[in-house]
């Protein structure tokens, strides 16, 4: 019996060690690009092509960032990106949760057809709708405005799918029926019962939407022409429009533009992890 227990402990410890080792290596591989970006942001441009590669930070982080500030309106771009991401995230969360609630808990004609139609749009490349969306935004007078960038992102098929799945599994039908017997309206049920339950899913979807909009470039570059309206992605693209490219300056701007995403994740990581673990248990 003791020999059997020792063998199980050995297998368990070796298996556990191999899992931890794999996770450690995966973490290093995932974090290395961010570390290398930081290193290049603290080095002169010549270090970008140095052989062997430079792996230790330098002392030019502030100097390179000052070059960024002299070339573009960095903080103006950050502010525009924050406003854009904040508004889009809030509206996507509201629309996706309401639509997910309707698809999960209501019975109406064509429910499955509408839901499948929404999911089908996920397989359509966004580049195919670039020109029609541009003409539409131009006709309604929203060209070169943040509103024109926002409006095409309000309907998020992935968000509707995630909310529908989470609500269907996480909100009991008995709870909704009891609320209806008490005279609650559908919106009151959504606001008072469904919304508190799906807060972890809110955090997950919010992080996904915020980071996606923050990193999106093509549509923002297509719509925005006024430098005062540039988001941070469009503004950073202007740093490469020179004959002598300063990689230290560019990567310094990219590094500081990444910091808000890290802050957002650190603020909501508990709800994010809670949503993932609850989904795995269910």
From TrEMBL:
Does this UniProt record's set of keywords contain Transmembrane helix?
A: yes
**Predominant cellular place of this UniProt entry's protein:** membrane
**What Pfam family is a match for this entry?**
BPD_transp_1
Task: Give the domain of life.
Answer: Bacteria
Q: Where are the bilayer-spanning segments? A: 20-38, 78-101, 113-136, 148-167, 188-214, 247-268
InterPro entries hit by this protein? MetI-like, MetI-like_sf
Q: Which GO terms describe its biological process?
A: transmembrane transport
Supply one GO CC term from the record: plasma membrane
Q: Which SUPFAM superfamilies match?
A: MetI-like
Keyword NADP annotated? no
User: Which keywords annotate this record?
Assistant: Cell membrane, Membrane, Transmembrane, Transmembrane helix, Transport
Tell where it localizes. Cell membrane
Q: How does it sit in the membrane?
A: Multi-pass membrane protein
Q: Which family does it belong to?
A: Belongs to the binding-protein-dependent transport system permease family.
- Protein name, entry field: Sugar ABC transporter permease
Biological source species: Niallia circulans (Bacillus circulans)
Lineage at the top is: Bacteria, Bacillati, Bacillota, Bacilli, Bacillales
